[in-house]
Each structure stands twice: as C-alpha cells, then as structure tokens.
Amino acid sequence: MQFKTLFLAAVALASTSMVAGKWLPTSANENYWQYCRSDGAHFDTLHACFQAPSGSFVRQVAGQSGFTGYLGSDLNHFVVTYEEDTTLVGTKYIVNIEFFVVPQPGVNDPKCAGVTVLEKTGRKNEGIVIAQQTVCKGDIMKLPQQMA
Fold first, then answer.
1. What is the full DSSP assignment across 95-136?
2. What backbone phi and psi angles, to 5 degrees, belong to 101?
3. Keywords in UniProt for this one (predicted)?
4. What whole-number distance in Å separates Cα of residue 115 and Cα of residue 5?
5. pLDDT digit string (tens) for 12-30?
6. 101-128 tens-digit pLDDT
7. Burial of 123 (0-12, 13-18, 19+ CB in 10 A)
C-alpha cells in the first residue's frame, strides 16, 4: 500500500513540474516588436516570430503546450521565446520549435529555430507534417493558410 501511495505522489509531483504554455504580459520593452524588428531590444536572442492566417490558432493554444511568448496586438503575430522544449498545441495543429545557434567564425552567430507544423491525426500530440522551416533572427514564419 505504501508503494502505491508513493507512486501516486511521484506522478503528481512530475505532473506539476511540467511547463504549461504561457502568453506573457506585454510592456514597452517586452513585446512582439522588441523581438521581431531589427531595432528591437531582444532581436539578438533565441526566439521565433510568426504570422498566423488568423487569431484562431493562437486562441486554441494552451493545456498541453510548453512555451512562453508574446502576442502581437492583432493576435495574428506572435513570438515564442527560447525554452529547451517548445511546443504549441492547438485543437487541430501542433507547432514544434527547436532553437539553435549557427556557429560562423568572425561574425555574430545567427540565432535560429527549426519549426515543424503538424496537423493532428487523432493520436495525442502526433500528426502529419504540413510545414517545416528554419527561422533565423529577422525572419517571420507565415503559418499555413489552412490553420485559419
């Protein structure tokens, strides 16, 4: 009986340590444009900028997601900031993001993200790839129109 109780407690602790998706509050220094515009204060950091065909995908993201980011004022634009495991899970689509730096001797190393967009197939967090793109600082990935 003690083993069963210990196991349930361990599962509960593991569940509470998981990162949930979070849109952060914006301010003059912390917002979409400070990351995604070349003169922005956070332009030279690991992040990925996006333009969605509508705000509907953004409104669906939560629950099983693991990310932090800022919404643009129109809800069609958003930036996801660096975290080791970054996933935005919506009702029909999943966006996986892997951040990395491309080493180039003698230049400021480009900070990039490999983005994979999946259309869910019914299995939990699995799907068919509908878009893949490498997004480096200065790039804004346009999400597929079917995500509207």
1. EEEEEEE---TTSPPPEEEEEEEEEE-SSTT-EEEEEEEEEE
2. -115, 135
3. Signal
4. 40
5. 333 333 457 899 999 999 9
6. 988 777 677 899 999 999 999 877 789 9
7. exposed
